[in-house]
Design a protein that fits this description.
Largest sheet: 8 strands, mixed
CATH superfamily of the largest domain: P-loop containing nucleotide triphosphate hydrolases
Structural class: alpha/beta
Oligomer: single chain
Strand content: 15-25%
CATH class of the largest domain: Alpha Beta
Distance between the termini: 51 Å
CATH topology of the largest domain: Rossmann fold
Number of domains: 4
CATH architecture of the largest domain: 3-Layer(aba) Sandwich
Number of helices: 23
Radius of gyration: 26 Å
Helix content: 40-55%
């Protein structure tokens, strides 16, 4: 017997294909390299690379397990059959019911020899189960489809799903093909750097693709593909450029191109077309009341790549859904596109609609905004204007890069000369609604990330400590979680105790690893 994923008492699955002359040694080598970097099963990878067709893959899987195969891309399964098995078990077993014959259920599985799964399904259904083997890549596509479109609320149409399959190119592809791979592998980013293979980020980790290293000439071609004539002119002058790129039938990406080591690099971050809700991304429900206030200052902070823009967009959408007001944003670049709901949403992009954040903010009061949104708070002039705006009766929501809530307060105050800092502390104390610092932490069981937050809500005691410049006292308050303050370590400890994240990731993302461990120990002893 041979196994698609490798382990067997005889030949490995790839070696069997090689022995039968179905694939070449070079093709198998590339598939194994891909498996090392992004996981999966060799047979399915060979199929996705175009070296193996579905019929051959199904034929060999049938021989491997000595059981009938099922091509998920040829099936239409009605909700009545799907709903026989809860989606939690579908995801856990990598199996789902596809038809019912004489009260028996045919179960498509990637491992039809998993007797524990079969017995558990038979027990749950009180029916006899007849397993059929399905290719790993088809099952992955089906489960991803269920996660995005819902499970059991409509027909599973495998034929339609097949049309969305993207083939992995065996040689260095175009930028657009690489961006397709970001979507295909549920990654968040694409990284192109001269001297190393193209890389994608999956659940916070960079994975190099099994492709040739990018050359200087290829990098120039990649960049020429995505830049307009005007953007090429800006890049030549500024030596870096940040913009949004929409690709029909693929998606929208935030692209950053920059110079490094006398060469160029490109980073592309996938922007989801649908704007997630506050609940979708795991933001705490207390935020709802604050973001509907008509006046005040809100700061979303944290390191780059930890979902600040997504949080900002979810908040804008919540206001847009629940208030009748004029929202004006200044963004670099515009990532999520907001439709007008109850509010008017005017989105201005740096370099397209206004020269800079400071320039856009100078004129913003003439636009009669009720809500002002700034995608990145950086300079003294911008901070001064938004604090004044919050004092004047506007709701101001901004993001900035900092490690935690305290360093965010420091950045806001310390950007000013010392003789102005007392006045800025008074402004901040009066205007602030809350500061939220966030991290995206890989889920313990894989397949996504969990949002962990640190908060400072501007209560009377917080307001006084900000006025007096007692940031150390604010930090010391975080050792006891309360309605107005909670540390990142408390949130991470809660996620760990709920088995949502691993202990190692809790330590990795914690602000104070010793305190994080103490929280877990004290809870275990309680």
């Amino acid at each position: 017997m041979f196994a698609e994923k490798g382990k067997s008492s005889k030949l490995l699955f790839g070696e069997v294909l090689l022995e039968y002359g179905v694939v070449t040694r070079e093709q198998l080598k590339k598939a194994l390299e891909w498996q090392i970097h992004v996981g999966g099963r060799v047979g399915s990878i060979l199929k996705e690379m175009g070296y193996l067709d579905d019929d051959s893959l199904l034929n060999f899987l049938s021989k491997q397990f000595n059981i009938s195969p099922v091509n998920l891309f040829e099936l239409v399964v009605p909700p009545g059959i799907l709903n026989l098995l809860p989606f939690e078990k579908v995801r856990s077993f990598h199996a789902f019911p596809v038809k019912e014959v004489d009260a028996n259920i045919t179960l498509a599985m990637i491992n039809p020899h998993d007797m524990n799964a079969i017995q558990e399904v038979e027990f749950a259904l009180s029916r006899r189960v007849e397993p059929s083997v399905a290719p790993f890549y088809q099952m992955e596509k089906a489960i991803n489809y269920f996660e995005e479109e819902g499970y059991g609320n409509k027909d599973f149409d495998g034929v339609h799903l097949k049309e969305q399959v993207i083939t992995i190119e065996s040689e260095t592809p175009s930028v657009y093909s690489l961006l397709n791979l970001v979507i295909e592998h549920r990654a968040t980013e694409l990284h192109l750097t001269v001297g190393i293979p193209p890389s994608i980020r999956i659940d916070s980790e960079i994975k190099r693709l099994p492709l040739p290293s990018v050359t200087s000439e290829q990098m120039i071609e990649f960049i020429q593909e995505v830049l307009t004539h005007e953007q090429k002119r800006i890049f030549a002058r500024e030596k870096e450029i940040d913009f949004a790129l929409s690709i029909p039938h693929t998606g929208r990406f935030r692209i950053n191109i920059y110079k490094q080591r006398n060469s160029m690099s490109l980073t592309a971050r996938f922007i989801r077309e649908s704007i997630p809700t506050i609940e979708d991304i795991g933001l705490p429900p207390w935020i709802n009341d604050y973001v509907l206030k008509t006046q005040g200052f809100i700061v979303i902070t944290g390191p780059s790549g930890h979902g600040k823009t997504t949080t900002l967009s979810a908040i804008i959408d919540f206001i847009n859904t629940h208030r009748r007001c004029n929202i004006v944003t200044i963004e670099d670049p515009v990532e999520y596109l907001h439709k007008h709901k109850r509010s008017n949403v005017n989105q201005r992009e740096i370099g397209v609609d206004t020269e800079s954040f400071a320039t856009g903010l100078k004129h913003i009061f003439r636009q009669s905004p009720d809500v002002i949104v700034v995608s990145e708070l950086q300079d003294l002039e911008s901070i001064s204007i938004v604090l004044t705006a919050a004092e004047r009766g506007h709701l101001v929501i901004c993001t900035m890069n900092s490690q935690n809530t305290i360093t965010a307060i420091d950045r806001i105050i310390n950007v000013f000369p010392e003789h102005q800092q007392h006045h800025i502390r008074q402004q901040l104390a009066d205007a602030l609604l809350f500061i939220l610092a966030q991290r995206l932490v890989p889920k313990k069981k894989g397949g996504g990330r969990v949002l962990a937050c640190e908060k400072i809500v501007n209560s009377a005691r917080i307001r006084n400590l900000i006025r007096e410049g007692k940031k150390i006292d604010i930090r010391s308050l975080m050792h006891v979680a309360s309605s107005d303050i909670m540390s990142l370590d408390h949130c991470l400890a809660n996620h760990y105790l709920k088995e949502e994240i691993s202990f190692d990731d809790g330590i990795k993302f914690s602000d104070n690893p010793s305190y994080f461990q103490d929280l877990i120990k004290s809870e275990a002893q309680a």
